[in-house]
Amino acid sequence: MGVFEYLGVILSVIMGLGVTHILAGLSKTIHCRNTVKTYWVQALWSVNVLVYIVTIWWGMFWWSGLQDWSYFQFLLLILYAILLFFSASLIFPWEISDGFDFERHFNETRPWFFAVLALAWSVDVPETMFKSGEGLRGLPDAYLAFAVPHIALAVIAAIWSNKTFHKFYAVFWLMFTLGYLSLTTLAEIAA
């Protein structure tokens, strides 16, 4: 077993727990659909986080080309995985009881959720720069034009409770991310 395979196990476990939490939350919501108050913005953010985790998990494969690992690089990747897990655990509660109100839950956890999302994007920048600096992946031309708005909008979303903004941002995040991925990351991974 190589270093990447060894380190990749813990990354996969942490991110896999995030994916599992979101899928379990969606499943519980479907099962309890007649007794809970759903909120489409929260549901869309759960899909957004799922897309985010799966994309980063897939993108971790680039690290497989690194032979000499530093403890700092490992800690950075672990921190990233932990932040992604936290975002998944904040968007869905651990328990969903009868009468649960997802809109109220979203509004109550919103500052924490978006602060974690902003931190995750802030970790993505050095993680992506390290991959580029190690020659594992070229830095996409549009990367900073993609990452900086994500960080800024997440900070705004953590601070500002405006419902219209949050409806727009949930849709914008998915479209912006899928557009970027289709032009850069996914095409490069498939090549």
**Which stretches are poorly predicted, pLDDT < 50 over at least 5 residues?**
none
**H and E string:** HHHHHHH
> What is the terminal separation in angstroms?
26 Å
Q: Which range best describes the helical content: under 10%, 10-25%, 25-40%, 40-55%, 55-70% or over 70%?
A: over 70%
Mean pLDDT: 91
Major sheet details: none
Coarse structural class: mainly alpha
Shape from CA axes? globular
For the secondary structure, the number of strands is 0
Query: Approximately how much beta-strand content do the residues carry?
Result: under 5%
Number of H/I helices: 7
Alpha-carbon Rg, integer: 17 Å
Q: Any key phrases for this structure?
A:
single chain; about 190 residues; mainly alpha; 7 helices; globular
What can you tell me about this protein's structure?
76% of the residues lie in helices and 0% in strands. The protein has 7 helices and no strands. It has helices at 3-31, 40-59, 71-91, 102-133, 143-159, 163-183, 185-190. The longest helix is centred in the middle third of the chain and has 32 residues, at 102-133.
